[in-house]
Amino acid sequence: MLQGGGVNDSERQIFLLVILIIFLSSSKKSFWFLVFPMCVIYAIYSPIGLMFGKPTYQYVASVFATDFLESKEFFYQIPKVNYLYPFVIIFGVVLYRYIIVRFDIKLYRNKTVVIIAVIFSMLNQSPSEFFKTIIKSSIEVKNELVKLNEIKPKSDWGESFIDKSIYNTYILVIGESARKDYHGAYGYPINNTPFMSRANGYLIDGLMSGGTNTVASLRLMLTKPNVDRWEPNYSLNIIDLIKSAGIETYWISNQGYFGDFDTPISAIASKSDHKFFLKSGDYASKNTSDFILLDKIKDIVINNHNKKFIVVHLYGSHPNACDRINDYKKIINIKDKKYDYLNCYVSSIQKTDLFLEKLNNFMRENDNSYSMIYFSDHGQAHREIGGEIYFNNNRASKLHFDVPLFMISSDDDSRHECKSFKSGFNFVNGIASWVGIKNKKIDSNYSLFDCNDDPNDFGVKKYIESIELELDPAIDLRGK
């Protein structure tokens, strides 16, 4: 039960849980109304907890932001043997009840006193920690969604104006789950990014994402956050900033969409003048390719010659990565099944690179004044399951925050590669500078592409140092 709940399963905690069950079993009612429901909840969560650990804010937020297809893929990642644990837990507790009743076994004396004492002794121990985490995380998510609904008509940017805005079209491409060290452009030994590796523009080595999954990261990177508390400010979001300068906004996404304010990301997207989601409505159960987004972008560029800002949110390398390349080939042949999934992951990054190349080629032919930025929302962590190495976001890697950052523009005639630390918490400042927007709440001197280190990481490096997982560098698939 404790392992399945992802909480402390030391001998002491196991002993305390056993004592709790034994003494609560002194009463038929306390067994069936306390012990049994507790064990059932642990049992239901155990297949997930054995793989991803205890529920956290990020995990609960991901549940809110996940559609049917993502849920199906999520459960496919869980080893089949994990689904036996709920039956083992429930069978075990029922068998225990049968034995103590059948043989009239009593391991207690004064039942009332002992039950009260045991319950209070458990309040700050592992059995109740699981429920406290669920309640705390759920309340945090609920409060954030309530806050989103409260602020939906409001923007606190005030007046903005355009100053030295060079291009007619700005395109912000958001990658998904693409860790920097798996890109050929950043040194990965397999060249899965031929376009990013050779194109003129700026390749920045040093961007740190805002979190370890889509919601946790983008809610901070696409708003001007409270950097001390790591909290987003939805009244200062990137779309409202662009609109405050009189620029038309578009949001084109291959991510799931439920309603305007069902997730922090859809709340920001809903602010756009125009939004298009491949996976909303009838698309919710389809594994749609990122390439389909190109047609929508082409339609916008061809039919709208006004100044515009287009956000393109890819499905990229989202787990399950093998489903991301249904319409694409694997980059190399792998002999060892252990690395099959990583082969899909590396290939999905190559597919994203091809997407960027196709988009850039179209823009060069149809818009002589454009600039495009690509970055990823977060990385992932290795995990070996059933003899095969997978990637997932539900536990943190020391390399989880390292993501690519690439910019290419219509007038680029040279290539620049810079190793400079850039905090995702400054991302909105960087986008404002890129577009040429002036606002009193923006640092007008900040640039993502000045090749200088940000002076403050706002505690990210300290957090990374606290991650207990050993360093898990990219795995070279050559010869595997």
Automatic annotation (TrEMBL):
Gene3D superfamilies: Alkaline Phosphatase, subunit A. The keyword Transferase applies. Its main location: membrane. It is a multi-pass membrane protein. Residues 169-437 form the Sulfatase N-terminal domain. It is found in: Cell membrane. Pfam families: Sulfatase (PF00884). It comes from the Bacteria. The chain crosses the membrane at residues 31-52, 83-100. Coiled coil: none annotated. GO terms for molecular function: transferase activity. Keywords: Cell membrane, Membrane, Transferase, Transmembrane, Transmembrane helix. Belongs to the phosphoethanolamine transferase family. This is Phosphoethanolamine transferase. It comes from Niabella digestorum.
